[in-house]
Amino acid sequence: MPNRLADATSPYLQQHADNPVDWRPWGDEAFDEAKRRDVPIFLSVGYSSCHWCHVMAHESFEDAAIAADLNERFVNVKVDREERPDVDAVYMQAVQAMTGRGGWPMSVFLTPGGAPFFAGTYWPKEPRHGMPSFPQVMEAVAEAWVERRDEVLGSAASISTALEGHRDHTPADEVDPSAADEAARVVLERAWDRQLGGFGRAPKFPQAMTIEWLLHRHARTGEPDALRASVQALDAMARGGIHDQLAGGFARYSTDARWLVPHFEKMLYDNALLLSAYATATALTGDPALERTTRSTASYLLTDLRTPEGTFVSALDADTEGEEGRTYVWSYDELLDVLAGLGVDPAVWTRYLGSSSAGNWEGTNVLHEPVPRERFAAEKDMTPEAFDVAWERVRHALLERRDRRVQPGVDDKVLTDWNALAIRGLVRAGLLLEEPGWVVAAAQAADALHDLHVVDGRLHHTSKAGRASVPAFLEDHALLALADLELFQATGDARWYERALALATEAHDRFHDAEGGGWFQTADDAETLITRPKETWDNATPAGTSVMVEVGIALAGLTGDLAWRDRALDGLKTLQESARRMATGYGWLLRQLEAVAAGPREVVIIGVPGPARDALARTARRALLPGTVVVVTGPDHGDAVAVLAGRGEVDGRPAAYVCRELACERPVTEPDELAALLRT
Fold first, then answer.
1. Residue 173: how many other CB atoms lie within 10 Å
2. Which of 301, 327, 384, 483 is deepest in the core (most CB within 10 A)?
């Protein structure tokens, strides 16, 4: 019999709707019931593509005896961390404070008032590797609640007080762009894996924001190692098992240092962030391998993750039928069978894909590219063109066979912030690689978000099957505003500017932390939690404060309203010292410090569409100078946007204006003149 999750909009909650556990969604009803029964709350937080969430569900939440104990002793609440990032942020902070680490599934025992008093992540059904079993944990918590209530309540009060007063950053007195120099030195000297690529040790995450920061740093300073580290990481990931060699797209992270064995879940935000990073690197280097990966990642977004409405789903599961990676890995015999049917030499293509009869992971093969394509082709006396033709035959045949398998589950909820990242990535990549169709797709997604996720004048965080829910968070407002600004720059259509300005204004008015600086994650009229969360790390996705800094810098130049500049600098000061010390956790913010160091400016290109205007736009965009906004529009743009007012073509020719806070250089009409101005 379904529990109270059957009508949830979250696919993750719906996965637990048939558990014997009497799950309830987060809300007043659950807390009122805990108070009525005088029992603790068991809060379980996860997400649909989380492998260990599925393991704990199969081991414990589907077990009738464990469920009976949970139902008798606790009120049980399930939360999708992607649907309620505020709840996740508050209690993850508690888990980390109590245990020294975090992760999902997140398991927290709360008082009926919501204060945490005992926490962990995954607990097995049976004691294992020094971990207590979940039944043992339940027994101990229930006994403490009954026998040592005063001690439990005292602990909960202390933890809540500590969370309320917790600050992990000290605001600086002034913005200091040299913090980016120090951060780069730390990353390049200590974190960069010069042998295998990427940053840090296993497990290795893509670190797309760190890479994009270093690429823009190279564009500003010419620092060679910033480019080397970025390109090496992008190349290693593209050739690794973390990259789907057949369908495109990237898994969440690599379990090993070589990028070989991924944690097989695929997330929208990773692919959105990586798309922008690969496109930026392609523009800087002209490397055809990086361009191929840019194109395959865009294709993956637009084919595998796109909804009929033009938005994007959230994720694909790591597991298929309870087995991690089952859809993606290959037996050697099956590879040989497919290749034999093509009439090609199996030895060539199994070697190219790093596969063998012994396998490279648990007796199976994770497809990857041990030797770069061009080098491998040369070793086989094949021209690059001949290799590409043969590889496409092999790839299509392998993908067709893989598509016959049972496919991973899809988390089809639509998240505003993650979709905005995809819109940004498609616009940037579309402009740099001159693929206007990607920009059109991005505009369709943005229109759909504004149509579906704005209800009664308020933006919402998520939807499923067209049903919007959960009031929007800071990241939703900031990232959608940024996505709208990207579309304004690409199209010159003032409606995108107007939408961005409205979202940014609402974000500042309703989320700003006047006392501590920066912006809170939740609005001033949002549900009251035990503490008001403020995300400060550019972790898997950028922190809202970091994005608001970028939005503020852009709006200051477009509007001439220097209050936006002051707000941006205030946000930078809030996190600057933390970024100086812990660079890989602040990639997005550090890119904004590069913008301040470069000196923000606006490039306005006005003219009738055609080769002359395109040449000016190409020159401005491919300069990749941080903090530079490039707006391309027609002569009939109107005066709704201050930076455009009074500016037009010169002698009937498209013209480029390079401006700082509405003060512009004389217009130029030739690309080399524009390039010279941008170098100044």
1. 7
2. 483
